[in-house]
């Protein structure tokens, strides 16, 4: 039986999960693949740290480079995270001709263009299923199963922690801080949940997915990213009254001029849409291809075992690539698309929540600014208040460009009768 040497860089939650599940399903994997995986080295930062998964002590090293120097290691699995050591390590691995598997979304979102160019030059593949939506095989699906398609749109719920928080805010009426504390207590959110709630974890995943689907590398600084940290219970409640759920949604779509729109922000979606019923820590990707039509993928986007499932699937692909070298090294650029649509040009419907004085003429001033910008209002909610002081005013806006809408919201925010920064969220109808 042929044996394939693996070097694991990182033995945190996911690395340990890969080791554990390779062992647990060893016989099945070997029978399915006709080769045996042999973890030869595990690089960690601290040899003394207690581990929840056992592995022979002689496998552990603090020397990352020793994985690259071992000629018997054909595949390295980068699960150290961050973009510092990980970047240096992945570059060096490709230079050394080792197949790379990584779950590092920040690394690929920020350095994908460079790393895939190097992979292609060295004719060494990079596999990265675990980087996007944990256990959902959306990379392989996009790259292989749907290779016949032009992607008209891809929408995704790509961060389990923020989806859990939004679910609890919606179902139990919790405020953001309480729902976050609950997610942390249950071990869903990271100790520092900043990337989960500020949108960047999901944005990195959206960048990878969009780049793969549209064949050109999308830069993080060019897309619109907003998190769920400024949403209020009122937003959830008003959206609900209007027939919508709020999701931290990746919206990726191409227009007829082959310009691609990518944004990641809290978005109102109709409660009747299938993505509205993706709750708790689950992720989902709903995509539309010109050949396949609509397709939906649902599953766990984080956690030891679901993410290990994706890494092990990459190991199987890597084993196949060793047996029969391919022309694709993980990302294929093409020139069907190639232009990112500036956010200001993208058109959407909007939800605009304001906090306003309860005095005559307020609505007229706000409507006047919108009318001057040629922006139509489709509905208004202003709950009657029995308390003194400012009260919320919600306007649903017809199609407008982000540029025009943001400018109008700024002008509205500057009115003396408007007492807090306006909350502006797009509405997605998936047409
Ligand atoms: N922390 C992420 C989530 C998983 O909550 O979905 C890793 O990207």
Quick summary:
With 431 residues, this protein is of the alpha/beta class.
Give short descriptive properties of this protein.
Rossmann fold, binds L-homoserine, Dihydrodipicolinate Reductase, domain 2, 26% strand, alpha/beta, six-stranded parallel beta sheet, Alpha-Beta Plaits, 431 residues
What does this protein structure show overall?
The chain is an alpha/beta fold. The chain folds into three domains: 2-135 and 304-323, Rossmann fold, CATH 3.40.50.720; 138-301, Dihydrodipicolinate Reductase, domain 2; 345-427, ACT domain (Alpha-Beta Plaits), CATH 3.30.70. Helices cover 36% and strands 26% of the residues. Strands 7, 8, 9, 10, 11, 12 and 13 form a seven-stranded mixed β-sheet that branches. Strands 3-2-1-4-5-6 form a six-stranded parallel β-sheet, sandwiched between helices. The chain has a four-stranded antiparallel β-sheet with strand order 15-16-14-17, with helices on both faces. α4 links the parallel β4 (73-78) and β5. L-homoserine binds next to α7.
**Structural class by SSE content:** alpha/beta
Spans of at least 5 consecutive residues whose pLDDT stays below 50 are: none
* Helical content class: 25-40%
Relative strand content: 25-35%
Rg for CA atoms: 24 Å
The total number of structural domains is 3
CATH class of the largest domain: Alpha Beta
Question: How would you sum up the global shape?
Answer: elongated
End-to-end CA span: 52 Å
- Largest sheet properties: 7 strands, mixed
Heterogens: L-homoserine
The fold-level CATH name of the largest domain is Dihydrodipicolinate Reductase, domain 2
């Amino acid at each position: 039986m042929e044996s394939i040497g693996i070097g694991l860089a990182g033995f945190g939650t996911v690395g340990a999960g890969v080791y554990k599940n390779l062992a647990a399903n060893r016989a099945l994997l070997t029978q399915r693949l006709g080769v045996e995986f042999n973890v030869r080295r595990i690089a960690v930062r601290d040899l003394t740290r207690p581990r929840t998964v056992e592995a022979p002590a002689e496998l552990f090293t603090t020397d990352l480079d020793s994985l690259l120097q071992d000629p018997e290691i054909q595949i390295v699995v980068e699960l150290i995270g961050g973009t510092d050591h990980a970047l240096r390590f992945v570059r060096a691995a490709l230079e050394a001709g080792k197949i790379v598997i990584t779950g590092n979304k920040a690394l690929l979102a920020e350095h994908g263009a460079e790393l895939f160019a190097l992979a292609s030059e060295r004719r060494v593949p990079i596999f990265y299923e675990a980087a996007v939506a944990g256990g959902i095989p959306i990379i392989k699906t996009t790259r292989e199963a749907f290779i016949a398609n032009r992607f008209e749109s891809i929408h995704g719920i790509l961060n389990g922690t923020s989806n859990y928080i939004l679910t609890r805010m919606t179902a139990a009426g919790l405020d953001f801080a309480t729902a976050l504390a609950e997610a942390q207590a249950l071990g869903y959110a990271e100790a520092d949940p900043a990337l989960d709630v500020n949108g960047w974890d999901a944005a990195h995943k959206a960048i990878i997915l969009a780049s793969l689907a549209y064949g050109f590398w999308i830069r993080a600084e060019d897309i619109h990213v907003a998190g769920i940290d400024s949403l209020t219970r009122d937003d959830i409640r008003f959206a609900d009254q209007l027939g919508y759920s709020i999701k931290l949604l990746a919206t990726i779509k191409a227009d007829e001029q082959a310009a691609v729109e990518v944004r990641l922000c809290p978005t109102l979606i109709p409660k009747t849409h299938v993505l509205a019923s993706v709750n708790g820590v689950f992720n989902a990707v709903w995509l539309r291809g010109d050949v396949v039509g609509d397709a939906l993928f649902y599953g766990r986007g984080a956690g030891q075992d679901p993410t290990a499932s994706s890494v092990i699937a990459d190991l199987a692909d890597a084993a196949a690539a060793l047996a029969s070298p391919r022309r694709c090294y993980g990302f294929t650029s093409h020139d069907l698309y190639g232009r990112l649509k500036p956010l200001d040009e993208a058109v959407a419907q909007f939800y605009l929540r304001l906090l306003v004085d309860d005095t005559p003429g307020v609505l007229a001033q706000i409507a006047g600014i919108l009318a001057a910008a040629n922006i139509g209002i489709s509905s208004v909610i202003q709950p009657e208040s029995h308390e003194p002081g400012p009260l919320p005013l919600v306007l649903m806006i017809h199609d407008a460009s982000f540029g025009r809408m943001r400018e109008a919201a700024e002008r509205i925010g500057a009115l003396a009768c408007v007492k807090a920064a306006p909350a502006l969220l797009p509405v997605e109808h998936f047409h």
